[in-house]
Design brief:
By secondary structure, the protein is an alpha+beta fold. It is 18% helix and 21% strand. Helix 1 links the parallel strand 1 and strand 2 (55-61).
Amino acid sequence: MGFSSLTPTAYAQTIRRDLDMAFVVDTSGSLSGQAATVRASAKSFLNKFNATQDRVSLNHWRCHRFV
């Protein structure tokens, strides 16, 4: 093709949008004995977001059985 070398170039751009999210944690009896694991996992997940840009509502949900 008439050339002995090639210098490739690339360009990329990312756009990140702010996040609005409601995070609901199940604290019902079905998870009894797993509270520490659920708490640690929730903290790990929430630490992946940007505290100055993202808005996260943390809610806990507990199912009550009425007989």
